[in-house]
Amino acid sequence: MPPEVEDAVEAMTAVNNEFFYWMSIGLMMLIHAGFLAYEVGASRSKNVLATAMKNLLAFATIVVGFYFVGWFLYNAMPSGFIEFNDAAKAALPWSDNMGPNIEDPASGIFWGAFALFAATTGSIMSGAVLERIRTSGFLILTVFVGSVVWIIGAAWGWHGAGWMLTKLGFHDVGAAGCVHMIAGFAALGLLINLGPRIGRFKPDGTTVTIPPHNLPLTMLGLFLIFTGFFGFLMGCAIYGPNGYTTIYGTPTNLSAFAFNTLMGLAGGIIGAYVTSKGEPFWTISGGLAGVISVAPGLDLYHPALGFIVAMVGGGLIPYVGKLLEKFRIDDVVAAVTVHGGTGAYALVMVGIFMHGYPNLDGYSPITFWGQLIGMLVFAALGFVPTYLLSLLLKKLHLLRIPPEVEEQGLDLSEVPATPYPEGIPVTGKAALNGNGAAPMVAAASSEVK
Predict the structure, then answer these.
(1) Does 447 map to a domain?
(2) CB within 8 A of 317, min separation 6: which ones?
(3) Are 41 and 284 in contact (CB under 8 A)?
(4) CA dihedral in degrees (106, 110, 115, 121; nearest 10)?
(5) How many other CB atoms are there within 10 angstroms of residue 369's CB atom?
(6) Number of domains into which the chain is organized
(7) pLDDT score of 352
């Protein structure tokens, strides 16, 4: 091939690479639009603006924190400890690679995709703690998880040289573990210290349904998240001159991702619909659980197997939600169930169905025990630091809003505006049954509150 043709091919590959991740970032923004709509709909009308503002602030603060801290940790910690290797030095905020540099078209675009992954962890936590957390305390926690905790897990188990890959043969192509599971278990640690909303449980432990003010908006928000997931999963592939590879460097293509993403989405919806007996919130949440269920094995599953794995994953979430309620865990949008529980399930399923499948030369193959150990590492990494930090904030009275503010609603105390200036909308009061709960929602065990 003539030199000028080689130069043209190389330049076109670089442009395509940049554009690929640019589009990934743009599509992932829909995840955050979806989470905002999802959580606003799940809140009561007295808390909708505070909920929206919390989502906006979480996104902004995580992106900044990830620029200054997170990207360095990802490049410095694949071995398990901080090492000032060349990649880590290039990720420091004062490096030439961390700003406009005509000689480096890749660093910013990769950082941007990972920054959107980081922001997703904050959005996952945000929905769990609706209607009773202090904004200041939440932002401290979400920046900690989004800029420090999850990216350490990504360096260990998602990096092409991470010790979980090289020593255990760990496989999590679609980030069900390092993003969803870590964020879900972080939310669990936070919820234990935060406690349930006022009136959520009776003194004898009986669950009281707190219906959402706009269930259709919540369902629309989840469908936006589904759309954004295609950008999320684009960012889980590496595009280069020889085609696509996984984050681990193993060959794949977007065709494999498309088959299993869509089959997983469908399987999760159907599974949750069956086990929840058609309850709307669990049914639509089942789609999210289905995609997470197949995410670690997107590159390897046959679509029929992916469908079955996702259908079981979606079918499990109503039962996990019931179990958490028995421990008085008030998770408004079932983040612990859908992200934490399903993420753990997904990692183990890869260990069962892909046991013995080879990784790159010189690395351990995928094994059940490697997946199980990786799952336990991610669970501890998400839960323990967040539990301890939220406990400290609780001791300092920086975690939960005062009871009188919670009763009146956060919009009155935190937001200098009103969401419905022409009057509070009908929130289903006319449809409430004699027990004060909407019949459709009251039938569910731990639905959106």
Answers:
(1) no
(2) 272, 275, 282, 285, 286, 289, 334, 337, 338, 341, 342
(3) no
(4) 180
(5) 11
(6) 1
(7) 97
